UniProtKB/TrEMBL annotation:
Keywords: Cell inner membrane, Cell membrane, Electron transport, Heme, Hydrogen ion transport, Ion transport, Iron, Membrane, Metal-binding, Oxidoreductase, Repeat, Respiratory chain, Transmembrane, Transmembrane helix, Transport. Component of the cbb3-type cytochrome c oxidase. Residues 126-209, 218-299 form the Cytochrome c domain. Pathway: Energy metabolism; oxidative phosphorylation. It comes from the Bacteria. This is Cbb3-type cytochrome c oxidase subunit. Belongs to the CcoP / FixP family. PROSITE patterns: CYTC. It holds the Pfam family FixP_N.
């Protein structure tokens, strides 16, 4: 807090305290010429009279004690701007103490799972329960409560992994994150093959997973030449992708950003940038290991690969 704001807070606190004390003193005293408490001339039902008697002294003194307590509280706990209190207490320090205690309890809970391999954790129901709870608190925002993802957010329940589905690869994804970048190729392809170049590549990519589409397909044939000149470096000659780069397999029935012609055109023209945040600093290694074990266990259930959207673990 700056010195100016600190002075403002101190002045505001002093004004309110002194104002309350003055108001209490001013309204509790009687002055010469004031009517007697019984002389209000307010009557109801003939025998009910309104009086104007001063508050009892014990009640007024109670207010003065409350004001004195408030002044002491401000000095003791540091309520006057940026000036620390006499006791040295601060909300930041209180939070730090609570965090230390909570971290100690968490450490005790997670100690049995430290450095355990993912396949071992995946066989432990208690470890999986902890991993699922961590996932719900941390990962469900992007991947959904059922881990089935959405457009642009991978489905974690299938067996498709853009960065590799081995236990160590899944753990690395959770710990260190991933950055999957698909460069924009619209202008490059147009320069190579004219205005229809992007449509040619879309036709070829959509035909990769279905050889029947290749036969007598002029657009796919034109797209293959363009693909071999631009896309093959990441996705491979056969379109199977590259897990070292996060380049997806183009021959399966899974599309992170959708399989429609418009979706594929946008991907090729504008590119994509998928970011999986690193969770090492947020969760620590043991909790990251638990959530990775739970996620990895989902892919071991041999569920059919999802279509349309969701899969892999964090990049286009």
């Amino acid at each position: 807090m700056s010195s100016g704001w600190s002075a403002f807070v101190i002045a505001l606190a002093a004004f309110n305290i002194l104002g309350c004390a003055w108001l209490l003193w001013w309204t509790s005293k009687r002055r010469p010429g004031d009517p007697k408490p019984e002389d209000t001339s307010h009557f109801w039902d003939g025998d009910i009279t309104e009086y104007n008697k001063p508050m009892p002294r014990w009640w007024i003194n109670g207010f003065y004690l409350a004001i004195a307590f408030g002044i002491g509280y401000l000095f003791w706990y540091g309520g006057l701007g940026s000036h620390p209190g006499i006791s040295g207490w601060s909300s930041q320090g209180e939070h730090a103490l609570d965090k230390v205690a909570a971290d100690a309890r968490l450490e005790e809970t997670f100690r049995p799972y430290r450095d355990q391999p993912l396949p071992v954790l995946a066989k432990d129901p208690q470890a999986l329960a902890l991993g699922r709870s961590i996932f719900a608190n941390t990962c469900a925002t992007c991947h959904g409560s059922s881990a089935q993802g959405a457009i642009g957010y991978p489905n974690l329940t299938d067996d498709i992994w853009h960065w590799g589905g081995a236990p160590d690869q899944v753990l690395q994804t959770v710990l260190d994150g991933r950055e999957g970048v698909m460069p924009p190729w619209g202008q490059v392809l147009t320069g190579m093959g004219g205005d229809n170049a992007v449509d040619y590549v879309v036709a070829y990519v959509r035909a990769l997973g279905d050889p029947a589409r290749m036969s007598n397909n002029f657009m796919a044939a034109q797209g293959r030449q363009l693909y071999d000149g631009v896309c093959v470096a990441c996705h491979g000659k056969d379109g199977k992708g590259n897990t070292e780069m996060g380049a997806p397999d183009l021959t399966d029935d899974y599309w992170l950003y959708g399989s429609s012609r418009d979706a594929l055109r946008k991907t090729i023209i504008d590119g994509r940038h998928g970011s999986m945040p690193a969770h090492r600093g947020l969760l620590g290694e043991t909790r990251s290991r638990l959530v990775a074990a739970w996620v990895w266990s989902l892919s071991q259930q041999q569920q059919p690969a999802a279509t349309g959207n969701g899969a892999g673990e964090g990049a286009p």
